[in-house]
Every structure is written in structure tokens, then in C-alpha cells.
Design brief:
- By secondary structure, the protein is an alpha+beta fold.
- The protein is built from 17 helices and 45 strands.
- The chain folds into 5 domains: 198 residues, no CATH class; 183 residues, D-amino Acid Aminotransferase, Chain A, domain 1; 117 residues, OB fold (Dihydrolipoamide Acetyltransferase, E2P), CATH 2.40.50.140; 96 residues, no CATH class; 157 residues, Alpha-Beta Complex (DNA primase, PRIM domain).
């Protein structure tokens, strides 16, 4: 059907004759097969991997050699896990011009289906590739946008034994890029076309291996001290400060260290005289006698050491609150001094020496002298993005990255960058409120910062301390009370930060500095979801400004704040092989990988909406339960203000990929959302009609019901969008301008459903209950009530097969086969082949129900 005639035996021996014989180039847009002659000076051989959804999804793996593309069909695609041996079927050679082909191969043609370019780049054979092909063992390096490092193709069938030779595609063990699937799955992490979404070379983004920067230690490991000069030991030294970065650098050579949750400290050693100074030059030697003694025990004659003091808790993580409690008291022995730089040593000024070489000197120094109190701060030979992800999982503050060739400069520079797991900075306390029922404790701290010569209001923080700390804060701040706020005039309105009456705020002199972690800045310059981390005594209030992250020059990877919350690489899955759906064999790792890959599509549907979670700890066949409140903590999950729903515990919201994936790690299968957003919690911005088929209703009748519902809404002047439910039904969604309350919107939806049931009673019923809808469809309007939820777009469902709620166009309705047409195994793959979003216009549609209610004859009841 539609193919050219089989080639002659003579033609069969020519390059690409098998390829040409299988295709009718008058029908298919694939390029005709003509062997290519290499032109130009480049000797690099190209490779391409095309993702091909034909009768089933597979990956076409192609390597250029002798003017053609050697080709294998890899059903499951490549994996960085050396333990996985992926089947690869050797197929006919393809022309080099095929490397640019993306599109649809028509029905009736060989390989009919859709093709995208999943990865491409260059490859280097190890040894003679022709000899390797003949022997059935081809070893090579890939330099692509997704794949890198050393790979191997091994033939497992005997030549001529089968029609199509069977090979295995393997990741070589010991390769720097090798990773187990439980940590990273490139197929689910990066499912899309590199033509539509170019990534750039992965080796530039991650730099697993590479050369050293100028001036850094060479292969011998010896430090380059050519730029060191003799100089007297200065009496004072201002530290080099890092710039808060919004993105992880990828180009160049960078040193990656832990960002300690402590106080910056510099030690000056001049013979037996050891002094410890804060970043602002304050002498803290008397506060830190144990540390000073340990520095003296290093036996140095002359030095400046730069580092951070911390207290490590039982989990092995720096604890800022414990550090504060340890300073200047009997617990100071718990303090450790981690040293990461040495700007002066032994009568030599090392500040112009590259930081990589300074650290080499420091490392050699500490090999013989390290103690429990004074330690060398280790660097990690991993990409910054991976280190940041690991640091955030461990509960660390973040990471430091330093350009390997950077000198030591006593100012803030962009050669030292700090990447944080969450936003966090110092604020000035400008006032406080008392705790309700405990007037001797602080209830909230009112925050400020300097900007443009003015003290601006930054919101308030009311969590993060215990009763003892609350009393201590209250006692200290009471001594600083003043009549009027130090804030600029009109910065805040009395009572704005709390629901208490105006006049209960107590203003203070702006001298106390506290550190606060928070999720983001609001448009009006306030912190959102803040948590108190401690009082800072090493920084004066006059220096506190709003930190603004800068983007490093050159290529970057994902934003620093999003590395923990929006993973671009897979997270490690706990209990990955636990089967959660016996009907399909889906495992927990499949669910987590699905939510990881769907995050960019799903988060807009979850953004700023309260959610209910359906958890299935024993899998979908075991006990399940709803979670609406934060009784179980999940990393990244947002706890909303209890005032949003008086009389109830805090609601939850999913605002990041971190929250989405951590919920899946905690066995959440379904995500259900309210019909309103947090900002206007009592005024829904959509109305949903859930078409729920009763027993005996065919799929064709459900499709017809969706068309009829769409027709009614169109006649009422309302645009509607369609999605599968992931189960048996369909959802018809109407976006609204949030103006009416829940009772009015629910009343309208009930009136619409009653109209359908009255007009076509043989198809529709307006009453719930299984007995009422046998052979008919209940259009569920009850989901439009206050506090009611509906499965979100792209949510998986707790049903055999684990279907997914998929947004579709009305034109697709006729082609749909069921409400669970896509599952967690196929939904994201389906999306990678789509060129447009059928719901693109949904987000800008702001409709009112005024006309629709009038046409329907419905008038909402007015509140008494």
C-alpha cells in the first residue's frame, strides 16, 4: 500500500536501497535516500535519536558512518543506568538528510506515525567502527543535548540468524555520566523535541568532566603560586562576599562547596596571637575561646584564614539556632570553624593566586593539622545543579560556587556565587505584637529593610520560635520601644499585618536584625510564607537591604530557587519498585517520574488553588484517604492562612514542582483543586460540569452528552473547554471572572443540569445516586459548591490502569476512546508530540454568568 516496488538484487547491494524500497516518496515527506559525501573540514560524525510514535512508541538511534546513518530501533529508549540493557533492533540504514526530519508519516506508509528529534549531536567511535560493526561490539562517546559519555552497542543474535539483528544498547560502567534509574531517568526527565525546546550540549550544562581553568592546580595536583608576593600581615581584612545568583552557572570551571548556615568568621594568626573577627571587623575572640585555641594549635606563624562558624546538629546539618545559643556561653565548645580560604600565609599575600590553588594550599595545610573544632571545608566534584539539589534534600541552606581562577577581593563579586534552596535574608525588626493569651511572648515581628535611603516595610513573621525564644524576644524588644514607627511615612497601614484592631502594634528602634526564610516576594514588597530563623548579631541594621538575585554571565541552567522546587533532573525515589497498580505493574517510580515530567504542564492548573490529595500508601488496591490539611508534612507544600476558611485547619496548595514530586513520594496519586483561587477564595473563577455515566451508558452516548452540554453552553453565550476525567467520564470547564459567590455559581450549574435533564430525560438525570442514573448520565453540579474539589488537569487517578485527566480540544472528542485514554505511562509522551495547547485560550477567558443566568431563567438568591 503506497510503497515502491521491491528493488532488484543488484539494487539491494547499494547503500540505502532497503530504505528507499520501503517508502513512496510521492506520499511521505521523508527524504529520499541518497548516500552523502562529507564536505567541509569538520571530521565530527553526527548522531540523532528520533522519538517515533508509530504502532507503538520507540526511539530510532542513528550513528553516521560512511555517508549513511546506521540505525537501530530501541523500544524503551536509552538509559544512563548501566544495569539496564535496552534492546536495539538493527534496521535499514537511513540517509544523513533524515537527521532533520520531524513530522508525520502518513497512514499506509512504512512506519506511519509521528516523529520528533529527541536528541542529536556528535559521536566518537572507540577504535575502528567498521571492525566493531563486523564483530558486533561498537563502543563510542556521545556529545548530545541529552546524552553524553561512553556507550556500547552489542549484537546478541548471530549474523543471519534472524531477519533483523538484535543488539543491546548499554551505558558503560564507570563512566562519569552513569547514574541509576532511581536517581535519574533521562526519558521521563527530558521527553520533548530538541528542535522545539533546544537545550544546548549537556556537557556544557553539567560539565561532569573537563579541563581546568588557567591558574588552577594541574595534573600533578600542585598549586600554582606564581602570583603570590611577600607582604606584611595586615591588621584588618575585609572578606570577599558572594553574590546571590538566580541561576546555576554552567560554563567555565567552578568550585562547589556547601553553604554553611552560620556566621562568617576570619582568623588572624600572628605568632601566638590569634584573633577572630566577624565580617564587619568585630573582635569575637573572647566569645569563641575554644575556636581561638584550636586555631592556635594549628601551629601557624602568620596567616589570615577565612571561613564560617557553625554548630552541627544530630542530623549532621548546621543548625543556626544552636549556633546562636552556643555563642558566648558554656556551649561554645560545640562550635566548629570550617575554613574555606587562606588569603595570607607565612608572610605571603595569596590574594592574587587563583582560589583553586589557594584551596590546594589549605587542603595540604589541614592534612596534618585538622581537628574537631577547626576543619577544612571540602569541595565537591559534581555539577552545581546536582549539588544544590542534594543540599536542599539534606536540609542545607544551599551551595557556594566559586570560579576556579578567581582572586581574593575584599568586596562583593560575581566570581563567588551563593545559590539558596529557598529565599532567605536578614531583616530589621521595626515593631512587634504580643502573642494572644501569652502577653510575655512575641506574637509577630514586623520587618523592614533599607532601600533608596529609606526604611521600607517587608511584612511580618509569626512562626519559627518556641515559647522560650518568644519570651526572650519580647523582653529584648520591650527595651527598644518607641512611640512612632521608624518606617517611611505611609509605608503601612495600622493593623494591616494582622486581623487585630489597630493600635496593638508596638514600635521599636530599628536596631535588631533577624534572619528570615520565605517563599517569595509579593508584588508590594512583602515576604510570603516567612519563617523566623534567628537573631543576627554579626551584622548592623544599617547594612540590611533587600537582596536581589543576579543572573550569572554566560550559559546557565535552571534558576537556583527552582532547582529544589522544579526539577529538571530526576529525584531519587524511595521504594521505587513497589507496585502500586497490580493491573498494569506500575511502580511507585513510574508515578513519581510522571509527576516530575508533567510539572510544567500541571502547575498552572494548581497555581494558587487549595488542593485535596488522595493518598494510597498501599497502592490503588489498598486503603485510600483524602488529605486537605497539613497533618503530614511534605517538602515544598504550602500551608495556607487558616483565616481563608474560618473554623477549619490550614488548607494546602501546590505551588512548585518540588511540592508536586514530594507529594508523589508520599504516595499521593490524585490532586483535586477548588474552583477558586487563594486571592478570592469565596468567588469561583470557573464552573465545572462533570459528566458521570451510570451503569449501561456507552462511550458513544457520553461523547454525545458532551456535545449537547457544549451546545447548551454556547447558546448561553459561554465558551467551554473539555478534558477527560482520567476515569469513566468527561469534564466540561467554563472559566469565569470571579464575581459571584459559590452559592450563586452552584445554583447556576444546578439550573443548567436540571434543564438538560428536563429537556432530554432519556439521556440525563439531575439526581445523584447509582439507582437514579442507570442507563443515563448524571452531570455532577455538586462539585461547584464551596470547599468541593475536582481532579486537576493531568492528575492521575486511583483506578486500575491509572488514567490521567487530559485537556483536549472539542475537535478531538470524536476520536477519544475513553475517559482514561491516557495513563501515567503515555500522557507525557503524548504531549511531547503535540504542537499546540488546546487550552491556550482558556487562561485569558474571563466570562460572566449575567447573560447565561437570564437566558436560563435563573436568579441567585440574595443574602438576607
Amino acid at each position: 500500500m503506497g510503497r515502491t516496488a521491491p528493488s532488484t538484487q543488484a539494487n539491494a547491494d547499494t547503500p540505502l536501497s532497503r530504505y528507499n524500497a520501503k517508502r513512496n516518496f510521492k506520499v511521505t515527506s521523508e527524504p529520499a535516500g541518497v548516500p552523502a559525501k562529507r564536505s567541509g573540514k569538520s571530521k565530527a560524525l553526527c548522531f540523532v535519536i528520533q522519538k517515533h510514535w508509530a504502532s507503538r512508541l520507540h526511539y530510532d538511534f542513528r550513528l553516521e558512518l560512511d555517508g549513511v546513518m546506521l540505525s537501530w530501533a530501541v523500544p524503551k529508549g536509552p538509559s544512563y543506568d548501566p544495569a539496564l540493557k535496552q534492546m536495539a533492533i538493527h534496521v535499514e540504514d537511513h540517509p544523513i538528510s533524515y537527521n532533520t526530519f520531524e513530522g508525520t508519516i502518513p497512514k499506509g506508509q512504512y512506519g506511519a506515525g509521528t516523529v520528533i528529534i529527541w536528541d542529536r549531536g556528535t559521536w566518537e567511535p572507540e577504535g575502528d567502527p567498521r571492525e566493531g560493526m563486523a564483530k558486533g561490539k561498537l563502543i563510542f562517546k556521545l556529545h548530545g543535548q541529552k546524552l553524553a559519555g561512553l556507550w556500547e552497542l552489542v549484537r546478541i543474535s548471530k549474523p543471519g540468524e534472524v531477519k533483523q539483528e538484535q543488539w543491546l544498547l548499554l551505558k558503560k560502567r564507570g563512566d562519569a555520566w552513569a547514574r541509576p534509574t532511581s536517581e535519574y531517568d533521562v526519558i521521563s526527565a527530558l521527553p520533548d523535541s530538541v528542535v522545539e525546546k533546544p537545550l544546548g550540549p549537556v556537557e556544557e550544562r553539567e560539565q561532569r568532566a573537563g579541563g581546568t581553568a588557567a591558574g588552577t592546580p594541574g595534573p600533578s595536583g600542585e598549586a600554582d603560586l606564581q602570583l603570590a608576593v611577600q607582604a606584611p600581615l595586615p591588621a584588618k581584612l575585609a572578606p570577599q562576599l558572594a553574590t546571590l545568583a538566580s541561576a546555576v552557572p554552567s560554563g567555565g570551571s567552578w568550585i562547589v562547596e556547601t553553604k554553611f548556615d552560620g556566621y562568617r568568621m576570619l582568623a588572624r594568626v600572628d605568632g601566638d596571637d590569634v584573633r577572630l573577627f566577624t565580617r564587619n571587623g568585630n573582635d569575637w575572640t573572647s566569645k569563641l575561646k575554644t575556636v581561638a585555641a584550636a586555631v592556635k594549635d594549628l601551629g601557624l606563624d602568620s596567616a589570615w584564614l577565612d571561613g564560617e562558624i557553625v554548630v552541627i546538629n544530630q542530623a549532621g546539618v548546621p543548625d543556626f539556632n544552636r549556633l546562636q545559643n552556643a555563642i558566648d556561653n558554656s556551649r561554645s565548645k560545640d562550635i566548629s570553624f570550617f575554613v574555606f580560604d587562606v588569603p595570607f600565609l607565612g608572610g605571603m599575600d595569596l590574594r592574587k593566586v587563583p582560589v583553586a590553588s589557594r584551596r590546594q594550599v589549605l587542603n595540604e595545610l589541614f592534612e596534618q593539622r585538622q581537628s574537631e573544632v577547626v576543619r577544612f571545608s571540602e569541595a565537591f566534584d559534581v555539577p552545581p545543579a546536582h549539588m544544590l539539589e542534594a543540599a536542599c534534600k539534606m536540609g542545607l541552606e544551599g551551595v557556594m560556587v566559586k570560579r576556579a581562577d578567581a582572586p581574593y577581593v575584599s568586596s562583593r563579586t560575581d566570581t563567588w556565587l551563593k545559590l539558596k534552596c529557598q529565599q532567605r535574608q536578614e531583616f530589621i525588626v521595626v515593631g512587634f505584637t504580643d502573642r494572644a493569651g501569652a502577653p510575655t511572648e512575641v506574637g509577630g515581628l514586623l520587618l523592614g529593610y533599607h532601600e533608596d535611603g529609606k526604611l521600607r516595610y517587608a511584612g511580618s513573621v509569626g512562626t519559627g520560635w518556641n515559647s522560650a525564644t518568644g519570651r526572650e524576644l519580647r523582653s529584648t524588644l520591650a527595651k527598644l520601644q518607641v512611640e512612632k514607627p521608624a518606617l517611611e511615612a505611609g509605608a503601612v497601614k495600622p493593623g494591616r499585618w494582622s486581623k487585630r484592631p489597630a493600635g496593638v502594634e508596638r514600635w521599636v528602634k530599628p536596631t535588631m536584625v533577624v534572619e528570615v526564610a520565605f517563599s517569595e516576594w509579593t508584588p508590594d514588597g512583602h515576604v510570603r510564607h516567612p519563617t523566623f530563623r534567628g537573631v543576627r548579631t554579626d551584622k548592623p541594621a544599617t547594612q540590611i537591604t533587600r537582596e536581589k538575585a543576579e543572573r550569572p554571565e554566560g550559559p546557565v541552567t535552571e534558576t537556583a530557587a527552582a532547582v529544589a522546587g522544579k526539577p529538571r533532573t530526576s529525584v531519587k525515589v524511595t521504594n521505587p519498585d513497589r507496585v502500586i497498580d497490580p493491573s498494569t505493574g506500575f511502580k511507585k517510580v513510574d508515578l513519581v517520574r510522571y509527576y516530575e515530567s508533567i510539572a510544567d504542564w500541571m502547575l498552572p492548573h494548581l497555581k494558587d488553588r487549595p488542593v485535596s490529595l488522595v493518598r494510597a500508601p498501599e497502592g490503588i488496591t489498598g486503603e485510600q484517604f483524602f488529605q486537605k490539611h497539613p497533618e503530614t508534612k511534605m517538602p515544598g507544600m504550602t500551608e495556607l492562612d487558616p483565616a481563608l476558611w474560618p473554623g477549619h485547619s490550614s488548607l494546602l496548595a501546590v505551588g512548585s514542582a518540588e511540592a508536586l514530586v514530594s507529594a508523589a513520594q508520599m504516595n499521593v496519586v490524585e490532586f483535586h483543586t477548588w474552583n477558586s483561587t487563594i486571592k478570592r477564595i469565596n468567588e469561583p473563577d470557573r464552573v465545572i460540569f462533570d459528566l458521570d455515566p451510570g451503569e449501561g451508558v456507552s462511550w458513544a452516548h457520553l461523547q454525545e452528552a458532551a456535545v449537547l452540554m457544549h451546545t447548551l453552553l454556547t447558546e448561553l453565550g459561554l465558551e467551554a473547554w473539555l478534558k477527560t476525567s482520567g476515569g469513566k467520564g468527561l469534564h466540561v470547564v467554563v472559566p469565569l471572572a470571579p464575581k459571584l459567590d459559590y452559592d450563586a455559581v452552584k445554583g447556576f450549574s444546578q439550573a443548567a443540569v436540571q434543564h438538560m435533564a428536563k429537556t432530554i430525560p432519556q439521556r440525563f438525570v439531575a439526581k445523584s445516586g447509582g439507582s437514579n442514573r442507570v442507563g443515563r448520565i448524571f452531570i455532577d453540579y455538586l462539585r461547584n459548591g464551596h470547599g468541593q474539589t475536582t481532579a486537576s488537569a493531568f492528575s492521575a487517578r486511583v483506578r486500575p490502569g491509572m488514567g490521567v485527566s487530559m485537556p483536549v480540544s472539542w475537535e478531538q472528542l470524536r476520536e477519544l476512546k475513553s475517559g482514561s485514554q491516557w495513563s501515567i505511562a503515555t500522557a507525557r509522551e503524548y504531549l511531547s508530540f503535540q504542537k499546540s495547547d488546546p487550552w491556550a485560550a482558556y487562561w485569558t477567558s474571563k466570562q460572566t454568568l449575567t447573560k447565561a443566568m437570564r437566558l436560563l431563567g435563573y436568579a441567585p438568591k440574595k443574602a438576607a
